Structures are given as structure tokens and as C-alpha cells.
Amino acid sequence: MRNFLPYAMVGLTIMFTVCGQFLIKWQVGKAGALPQGLYQQAKFCLELLLNPWIIAAFASAFLASIAWMIAMTKLPLSHAHPMTSLTFVVVVFGSALLFNESITPLKIAGLILIIAGVAIGSQG
Q1: What is the pLDDT of residues 56-102, one digit of tens each?
Q2: Does residue 105 or residue 122 have the better pLDDT?
Q3: How many domains does the chain have?
């Protein structure tokens, strides 16, 4: 069970990272296009920063960092970090489900390469 904890923390790092990305994408999509002009852009960004869902996204990133710190107490960085590439896999499929983004053959090929890279890069 003790060896499971660092891998669970890597999994939580991935989950919290992806959750934060989805929250930001959702709220930025609701906010609309970036306006013209520096003042309007600053106002737009400040309103987003004060949005409770964006704050939750930052909290999710903070929790991902805590999980990562715990994972780093037991795993070598060169072993654990390739696993975080799985965020790309989750984001591609999640964005298709949540935001109707397309999954193209090139994206699938890229995901296969990422998964192969994780499998090879996290050995030893």
C-alpha cells in the first residue's frame, strides 16, 4: 500500500490539473472574446480572476501542486514526470465531450505517441 501512495498522488496531480483547465476553458468561453483596448482587456481579465469558478480552477492547480510535492517525496522526477503527460490524453477526450472539440486522426496519432512515450520514459 505504501508504494501505491506516490502513484495515487501523480494521479491526483493529473486530475486536479485537468479539472482546473476545464474550469478555465468553460468560464473563458462564457465570458466571450477578448475585447479591444488595454483598459477593456485588463477589466476583462480582472473580472475573470474574480470569478468563483476561476478561483476554483486556481485552487485545483494548488491542490495539484500539493499532490505533486507528496509524489516527489517517493518518486524520482525522471520517473514520475513523464506520467503527467497523460493530462494531454485526458484533455483531448474531455474537451471533445465537454466542449465539442474534434478528435482528429492526427490527434489520435499524437496521443498514441504520448502514451508510448510515457510507457518508455517512466521505466526505471
Answers
A1: 999 999 999 999 999 999 999 988 888 898 999 999 999 999 999 99
A2: 105
A3: 1
Residue 101 · residue 95 · CB < 8 Å: yes
Exposure string of 45-79, with b = 16+ CB inside 10 Å and e = fewer, is eeebeebeebeebeebbebbeebbebbbeebeeee
Q: What own/partner pairs with CB < 8 Å and gap ≥ 24 does 91-99 have?
A: 91/18, 91/21, 91/22, 94/18, 94/22, 95/22, 95/25, 98/22, 98/25, 98/26, 99/25, 99/26, 99/29
Distance between CA atoms of residues 7 and 18, nearest Å: 17
Residues 6 or more apart whose Cβ sits within 8 Å of residue 107:
92
The domain in which residue 47 lies consists of: 4-121
